[in-house]
Write a structure and sequence with these properties.
Helix 3 links the parallel strand 5 (89-94) and strand 6 (112-118). An eight-stranded mixed β-sheet has the order 1-2-4-3-5-6-9-10, sandwiched between helices. The chain contains eleven helices and ten strands. It is of the alpha/beta class.
Amino acid sequence: MTRTTGPAPARTSLHTTVLGEGEPPVVFCHGLFGQGRNWTQIGKELAADHHRVTLVDLPNHGRSGWTDEVDLVADADRVADLLAEGPPAVLVGHSMGGKVAMLTALRHPEVVERLCVVDIAPVSYRRVGEFAGFIEGMLGLDLTSVERRSDADEQLASHVEDPSVRAFLLQNLRREGDGWRWQANLPLLGEQLGAIGGWPEDRLGDVSPYPGPVLWLAGANSAYVRDEHAPAMERWFPRVRRVTVKNAGHWVHSEQPEVFLAVLRRFIAAGRED
């Protein structure tokens, strides 16, 4: 069973797609430039395992509402509001969505049964230039001259060489009437990449470490999870287990979907044995 809901009330402003029924529920948070539907294939597999799977569009992405600023803590609180509607969930987050998922678990541990963090750590990253280049290229497209998606791909090629990355970015392009528009709030995301790459340590002074089990999945070819990040991860998530996936970069779940799904299934199943 698949259900799609429109934008939630202003307090949450999150668009979601729900697949299947069953417990524990599994909730997915995407990364920068992504949207909930990026998790559709993995979500369908887990729905077939009798889980209620929720694919979330985070603010300023997909079909969710836009905000005046990027605030990962506020986004985490919105996700917590969503999770509070049902039993504690297995929360999965990649990259930016992984930070939102970590903050959700830290600030609202009662709604998170267990946490899976994909290729990100609870630290601030200075490496945002690549993403700034993506946004510059996307905003530089002459959408008035685009008749089909392939035209946009051809224009974007001068800014983004990798065709798979271009295809991912162009998922944000939506036809509107006779023209096209960007679905993501690209100007805001470009202005506030520092907040997206940061970690709000100063807003966690009264927060305790998350007591539940945590799976920390990293791509072997990615630079986003390094040994020096382990102390921060272990500080906030003392029950963490790190797994590195071979032949995968930052987008672990799309580059090695079968391995990713197998590891996630084992992690979910372990909760039934606890």
